[in-house]
Amino acid sequence: MQTFTQRLANPTQFMGLSARLLPWVAGLAAAIIAYGLYLAFFVAPPDYLQGEIARIMFVHVPSAWIAMAGYALIAVSAFGLLVFRHPLADVAAKAAAPIGAAFTFLALFTGSLWGKPAWGTYWVWDARLTSVLILFFLYLGLIALRSSIDDETLASKLTAILALVGIVMLPIIKFSVDWGNTLHQPSSVLKLSGPTIHSSILTPLLVMGAGFLVLFVAMHLKAMRNEILRRRVKALQLAEVARAASQVVAPAE
Amino acid sequence: MLLIAENLVLSRGGRTVIDGLSLRLSNGEALLLTGANGTGKTTLLRALAGFLPPAVGEIRIENENDDRELGELCHFVGHLDGIKPHLTAVENLAFWAAYLDGDSSGNGGDRLACALNKFGLAALADVPAGYLSAGQKRRLALSRLAAAHRPLWLLDEPTASLDAASVTLLIDAVNAHRADGGLVIAATHLPLAFENAKEVRLGPKEKAA
Amino acid sequence: MSGFFTLVGRDLRLAVRQGGALGTALGFYLVVVAMLPLGLGADLKLLSRIAPGVLWIALLLSALLSLGRVFESDYEDGSLDVLATGPLPLELVAAAKALAHWISTSVPLALLAPVLGILLNLELVAYPALVATMLIGTPAVSFLGAIGAALTLTARRGGLLIALLVLPLYVPTLIFGIAAISAMLGPDDVAPPLLILTAISLGAIVLGPLAAAAALRTQMQ
Predict the structure, then answer these.
(1) pLDDT digits (tens, 9 = 90+) for C127-160
(2) DSSP 8-state assignment for residue A46
(3) What stretches of C102-190 show up as alpha helix (H) in DSSP?
(4) Hey, which of A214, B208, C125, C209 has its CA 20 to 30 A from C219?
C-alpha cells in the first residue's frame, strides 16, 4: 500500500490527480478572491489617514505573503530534490519560480503605487520593500541560472543549491536590511498600521491571503502539469531520434 | 587489492551510457576499455574515480589495511592534462606530488627528478610548462603517476599526442607499476601493448571482463 | 590539512606569476571610484559623506570581476579532476581556493581603499575604520562569491550571471560594513555591527565551501 506522498511522487498519478483537482482549486480561488474583494471594497472601512487608497493593501500584503511562501516552497522542493531525489521536486521548484517572481513583482508594484499617495514618492527604501526587492533578485537569480544551463539535470541540481543558499541567507539579509533601516532613518518610515489591526481590516486581509494562496496552488498545479508534459514531449522526441538513427543503421548491416 | 564493479548502470544528462557492466580486477592486472566514440569509456573511468555516482550497482575496493576511498587510491589522467602554463614542469609536478600525498614537507626532490626522468622530461624540468608541446605536456601529466604512489591508475586515452618512443616510456611505467602489484585501467581506441591485459569492449552489448 | 596549504600556496603562486588578474581588479576599482565624482559633481562634502559606501560597493564589484576565474581555470585544464582525487574533500578544495582569492584579491583591494579615499575626500580619521571593516568583511565576499563561481562554472553568460547571483548575498556584508564604519566615527557603539560583520564572514566561510563543493561535484559528473 503506497502512502499518499508516494502516490503523488509518481508523475502519472500526479497528472491524473491534478487533472481532477485543478478545476476545483481554480474555482475555489476565484470564489475566495471574489469574497475577499467584496470585503475589501464594501465592508472594510476607509483608512482614517489615507482614505480609499489604503485598500491597495488587500492586494499588496497577500502578494508579499505569497512571494515569501513561494520561495519557501522552492527551498523545500530543492531539499527534496537534493536529499530525497523526489521525482516531482524539480518540477515543483521550476514551476514555482516564475509564479513566485510574479507575485513578488506584484507586491513591489502595488507597494510602489501605494507609496505615491502615502509617502509622496513611488519608492522609499523602507525595510520591508527593500527585503521584498532583494527577494525578487533571488527569484531572478534562480530563473537566470536555470535558463543559462542547457543540461536539465545539471540545471535542476545547481538551481536547487542556489535556492538553499538563498533560504539560508534570506533571514540574514532581512535582519541586515531592518538594522540598516533603523540606523539611517529611525522614524521617517510611516507605520502601515498600529500595533493591532482591527478585525474589519484583518478579516478581508486574511480572506484575500487565503484566496491568493489557493490561486498560487492552482497556478502552480497548472505549471507543474505543463512542465511534466513538456518533459514527456522532449522524451518522445529523443526516442524518435534514437529510433530513426537505429533504422538508418540497420539496413546497412 | 581487488577492484570490483557490479552491475553498473551509468547515466549522464539523463541518457544511460553504460547498462549493466561488471568488472573485477586484482593486483598486477591491467584492463583496456575499448569501443567507438560515445560508448562510455570516459564515463566509466569517471565513475571509477568517484566523480559520477552509479545510478545502479556499486563500485568497491577490497583492500586489507587500507580503508581509503576509491578516489584517494587512484590516479586519474583524463583528456586534459591539469598543467599550469605559468609554473615550470617540475613545479607542476611538485605541486601534484605534494597535494596528492597530502605532504608539503618538500623533501621529494629525488622522486620528482626520477619521475621526470622516467618520462624523458629531465632536461625540461625548469622550463615553464606553457612552452611545452602537446606531447611533452601529456608526458608531464603522466609523470604524476610516478611522482605520487597510488595503487590504481585510471588513464583516459593516455597515448593521445604521444610519439612512439613516449608510448614505450608509458608502457614501461605501466609494466613497472603492475610488477609492483598495481592496477591499471586505460581507455583507448588505439591498440595498446600492455602485456596480457584484459579487454572490455564497450558498445551496444557490454561483455564482462 | 597540509594538502590545503599546498593548494593555497599554488594558487597564490599562480596569482603572482600571472599577475594580470590582480592588476585588472585594482584598476577596475580605481576607475569605478574615479567615475563617481565625474558623475555626481565634485561636491567635496557630498563625496566625503558617501565615500565609505562608494568604496565598499566598488570593492564588491571589483572582487566580483575576478571571482569567475576561481574555479574556471582548474575546470578547463582538468586540474579540478585531479584535485578531487586528492586527500582533501572537495569542500576544503573550494575553501582553499576561496582563501587564495581572499588573500590575492580581496586584501589588496581593501588595502587600496584608503588611497581611493583620498579621491573622495574621505576624512583621515575614517581610514583605519575603513580598512579594518573591509578586512573583517571581505572573507564573506570571497567565500560567498565562490558559490557563484562554482554555480556558473558550466553556464553560458557566466560573468554576468555571477553578479546577479552573488550581489544580493553581499547585502548583509555591505550594510554592516558601512554600519561599523559609521559607528567607529560616530557616537554609536562599535561592537554590535563589528561583531555581526565578523559573524557574517565566519558564516560565509562555512556556507560558501559547502555550497560551492556541492555545485562542483554536480558539474564534474
Answers:
(1) 888 999 999 999 999 999 999 999 999 888 777 8
(2) P
(3) 107-119, 126-151, 158-166, 171-185
(4) B208
Domain B28-51+70-201 has CATH 1.10.260.40: no
pLDDT category at A252 given cuts 50, 70, 90 is very low
Which member of A144, A158, A179 has the closest CB to residue C179? A179
DSSP H stretches of helix in A85-126? 89-119
In what helix (H) or strand (E) does residue A29 lie, and over which residues does it extend?
helix A11-38
Query: Which of C2, C10, C17 is nearest residue B102 as measured by Cβ atoms?
Result: C2
pLDDT for B204? 62
Q: Where are the domains of chain B?
A: 28-51+70-201
Provide the domain limits for residue C68: 2-220
Chain C residues inside the 8 Å CB shell of A175: 172
Q: Which three cell numbers stand for residue C178?
A: 558601512
- Give residue B40's region: left, alpha or beta (phi > 0; psi -120 to 50): left
Gap between the Cα atoms of B177 and B165, Å rounded: 19
How many CB pairs below 8 A link B and C?
A: 85
Identify the CATH class of A48-182: mainly alpha
> Distances in Å between the alpha carbon of B76 and those of A89, B132, B144, B160, B200?
34, 21, 9, 15, 19
* C163-181 mean pLDDT: 93
pLDDT at A185: 43
The interface predicted TM-score of the complex, written ipTM, equals 0.91
Probe site for chain A from C144, C151, C220 (most A CB atoms < 10 A): C151
User: Distance between CA atoms of B77 and B148, rounded to whole angstroms?
Assistant: 13
Give the total number of structural domains in chain C: 1
Pairing of the two strands B2-12 and B56-62: antiparallel
Coil, strand, or helix at residue A195? coil
Looking up cell 582533501, which residue turns up? C88
Cβ–Cβ under 8 Å, residues A205 and A61? yes
